[in-house]
Write a structure and sequence with these properties.
This is asparagine synthase (glutamine-hydrolyzing). It holds the Pfam family GATase_7. Pathway: Amino-acid biosynthesis; L-asparagine biosynthesis; L-asparagine from L-aspartate (L-Gln route): step 1/1. GO terms for molecular function: asparagine synthase (glutamine-hydrolyzing) activity; ATP binding. With 595 residues, the protein is an alpha+beta fold. It has 24 helices and 17 strands. It has three domains: 220 residues, Glutamine Phosphoribosylpyrophosphate, subunit 1, domain 1; 211 residues, 3-Layer(aba) Sandwich (Rossmann fold), CATH 3.40.50; 62 residues, no CATH class. It has a six-stranded antiparallel β-sheet with strand order 2-3-1-9-8-10, with helices on one face. The chain has a six-stranded antiparallel β-sheet with strand order 4-5-6-7-11-12, covered by helices on one side. A five-stranded parallel β-sheet has the order 15-14-13-16-17, with helices on both faces. Strand 4 and strand 5 form a beta hairpin.
Amino acid sequence: MCGLCGEIRFDDEEADIAAVDRMTEAMHDRGPDGSGLWSQGPVALGHRRLKIIDLSDKAAQPMVDGELGLAVVFNGCLYNYAELRDELRRDGYRFYSTSDTEVLMKAYHRWGTACVERFKGMFAFAVVERDTGRVVLGRDRLGIKPMYLAEDGRRLRFASSLPALLAAGDVDTSVDPVALHHYMTFHALVPGERTILAGVRKLPAATVRVVEPDGTSREHRYWDPPYTRGALPEHAGLDAEEWRRAVLDALRTAVRRRMVADVPVGVLLSGGLDSSLIVALLAEQGQEGLATFSIGFESAGGEKGDEFAYSDMVAERFGTAHHRIRIPDARLLDGLEQAVRAMSEPMVSHDCVAFYLLSEEVSQHVKVVQSGQGADEVFAGYRWFPPLADVPRERAAEVYAREFFDRPHGELARVLASGRLLDHDASGAFVREHLARPGADTALDAVLRLETTAMLVDDPVKRVDNMTMAHGLEARTPFLDHELVELAAACPAELKLAHGGKGVLKDAARRLLPADVIDRPKGYFPVPAIRHVDGRVLDLVRDALTSRAARERGLFRPDYVARLLADPDADGTPTGVNPLWQLGLLELWLQAQGV
């Protein structure tokens, strides 16, 4: 639902409203329905609006309440905003709009930073207190909505996208060596606060940061699911059938919550279990004429480029208004380059371009969609989870790294230029530290916590937000409803691992979906031309990696690049990442950002 940005000065200067304006305009695609700026001394805010709830100008942002002494910018959706508004009215608050933005502002006035604990939804926000000069930044529990930061001691800038910060200027755009290690090792993502650029950081998920006028700040992590069997006492002692019902009820609630909008809501229907289950539950709740959308590409490398057989089956069964979108290879290359420019961070997954092109088409029909993203991380659907089933807790990091890392630390010497090598295993240390934290019963519990609170945030969640919002399309993810995630975290591991993964979810779906959809081989958004890096995509990658910019940057060993260009499908990683695409995508992204 939009893009936000702002600047806070700590050097007795007024905020640079021109820089905030540049950030705002850089996020035009995130919010094509309107824009606004606000400033007061050392603080300025900017906003691009996508109209979803309260389509009137009363909901425009930045929103300022002179009586309460607050100004706010907000990106996301509070699905329980109507209930919160009723509660706040009973406490004496008056409302001038029907927006969730005004609810957020008054919830902050009523409960302070603890307001986030009452929110059910996805959100990133900034609240400015007029009388104290304090600024509060917040992000939702699963990091569904982004918040990028650039700080240099004189000021702090923040924005919903990294390119917006670059548009403001004065950002250190050198490549962060630890982030590069993560990118080349940890499934091509950069977890935690870092980004690939040394001068940009992220506000972590489930975090509130309070920034004082003198530049001092404090952060508080307000949500951290324990991943223990006793975490939810009301579910203690449930048998398999009772867990099935509990999961289905929680998902039913999550799907219903995400229909809150003043515009129609559609579904991205891949034909897999997760998106099909969303369609089934919406049909169960009486949704008629639901718009659903599927995408397909041309075959390549002996690999089929669509899964229309399954999405058609689901669409027909539930009577949706279904849209089949087939992308010819001629359009794929343009879409690929546009998708790279739309990335806030380099994202290797081949389905980025699928999401980008699908979103482009979907945005012509609806402004909001539900997506099945996150189910595999939450309910143990990937192939690297079963090997952890009986592993001693102290061996979790070792087994996870073997199954999930693209390459061990020792192999980076043949990939990265000598000046880019770290003398320590940064990715291994990150994983070991995360998995060693208390509060997870088993090795699998610890890894699922890592996947849900770290990997998920910085790969699939970011991918969906970037690619959909590039077309002013809001994606909602019911499998990332925090109450559903808490329930899944407490669910016994054997129920999640059953039936090849996502067992409890598959059992929950059996009374709603055909067995052919539930028990099918695991699917994905197939983009064969990228998975195999051939034709015009290979030409694009070759040009990027052999360009003057790449040579001057010197990230990779030239002999390794040459070997991959000679054999584009060489050295496949354990998770199926094509190493040539991994290297090429990073260089393409850096060049697209002009750094």
